[in-house]
Amino acid sequence: MNQRIVPAVMAASSLMAAELPVKRVVLYKHGVGYFERSGDLASGESARLDFKASEMNDVLKSLSVVETGGGKVSGLRYDSSTPLDRRLGEYSFSVGAQVPLAQFLDQFKGARIEMESGGQKSAGAIVSGRVVAATEQQPQRDLIVLLTDVNELRTVDLSAVTSLKLADGVLQRQLRDYLGALAGARTREQRSVYIDSTDAKGRKVAASYLIPTPIWKSSYRLIFQNAPQPLLEGWAIIDNTTNDDWTNISLSLVSGKPISFQSRLYDPKFIERPFAELPDEQAAAPVIYAGAVGGAMPAPPPAPMQAMAKSSPGRGRPMMMAESAAAAEPMMDRVSNVSVQTEGRELGELFEYAFGQPVTVRRNQSAMLPFLQQPIDARKLLIYSDRSSPNPRTAAELTNKTGKTLDGGPITVFDSNAYAGEALVETVKTGDKRLISYGIDLGTRVTTGIDSGNQRYLEYKATRGSLVIKTGIEETTTYTIKNIDNRAKTLVIEHPLRPQYKVLNQKPVEVTGTMQRFSVALKPASTETFVVKEDYLHDEYVSVSSMTPDAILAITQNRTVSASGKQQLERIAAQKRAVAEADRTIRGAEQRIQSLATDQERLRQNISSLNSISGQQEVVQRYARDLATREQQIVTLRDQAAEQRTKKSALESELNAMLEKLEF
Q1: Is the pTM of the predicted complex or chain greater than 0.90?
Q2: How many Å apart are CA 223 and CA 418, to the nearest integer?
């Protein structure tokens, strides 16, 4: 017998489950797809849905099941994502890599086994297992000691055993489960969801869900032809990255971006719980309950809702065919010979293209399907927006009057039955329009000149002591356009839309969030100039209290200042002059007082020196009289300064009141 254990799947499913084929797919632009599956199940049969592990979070968030035929969905089962080491740790044994059989069986001490060796069967309880190392005379041996049914201890060399079986059914099941967990770990990408039912007869089951899918992509062909209108042809590029074939499914494509997010629902969440022990058991004492004095017992809680709500069934009728290429005007050879069979309809803020015929896309394959082909309003023009380049771009203005939302994507342009260039367009709702550019027009050159004027004072306003001065600077941009070709053209100039700039002489035909668009008609083989004059308007805030009287009076000379504003400013200027005059008087008195105090200090020093000299009494008396005179002058000046401070304080209070009431 092989002495090494090789893990293998040993369990078989006790309940057969049928797969439900995919019937409908709706692809979105935000990374998820909506799927519907349905099928007939036999009596007692469960349905199985297979997913990738990475899809399970969205499946558990969105899965909806409906069963017809009288049965009820009794529950859903799905493969657990419990970590392998946690699952295997629940068993009392383990299977290591390249473990000898004797060492493995040593974990089942006391378990009864049955084996066959040389055509003879034997049985007994496992006492121990050991491995005897190899020597020069004999190879490594796996030995097991058994307690036989006749109570003999017998050593068995497992190399001679041809079959071996655990007699305990519980251990057999545990070993199968253990090996099944190991096998499942090797196929981690495959997860199955089982739908069980209480019905014992055949029935029909439908399931719908969301899973992550690649977004569908759109590409267009814009064909200018000899017909009243150009033709727009749209192709949808889809990718089937699921594990299922999409065979004759109903396919819809939705333009728009609903909100979607991921939530961790599949991975089990474990939390740490505290240990709690019961106190020593004691005899329970009787409890006396007080009698009720009013009110009523609360009503019992409502019965729990059914776990899974039924979803609406899928579409029962085919989609109507959209306008086909045969209904359009005669087309040139460049038009693809495709059959477009889609029905478009609004879904709130979204738009759906539903294919009228079944679609087949095998798993891990992609497909390119036409979803639009009809005339569209489009006119050729030139766009100039890049001032670093002298040449404008060849472009077209598309107006979406198709009644359908045009999903964003690349556009390949054909003109005169030849390739003309490529463009990108954002999603265009019905009734909206877009500009697209697909080439450089070398037959037109544009130069730009900018000139700025002097600053002008446009308006003065005042409120609560603050002066708002609105100034303007005129800026002139001159576009010189030379049309070299001998044919007329229409040029759209994209001029920057800047805050605080106001256009004076032109009116834009269209304004975006960052640009103003002006249309200029170019004559054949001619030079045109297009001038855009703008005023740069700027508000400057100045505190009137910080301005000099001369600066305030200078503002009153501006003709934009109202008569009331001039009177208020003139009074404020006069009041500021009065405050300044009072301040000058105070400073003059303080300077005179400081000078007299210096003289007094000098006279005191002289008197002190002369008092010690005989015969200087007359000089000392004269100095004393001068000292008294200066003291009187200081007293008078201090009184004058105090009076001026009081006056200045009153003047400042009046000035603050004037500033607070300043308004014009």
Answers
A1: no
A2: 9
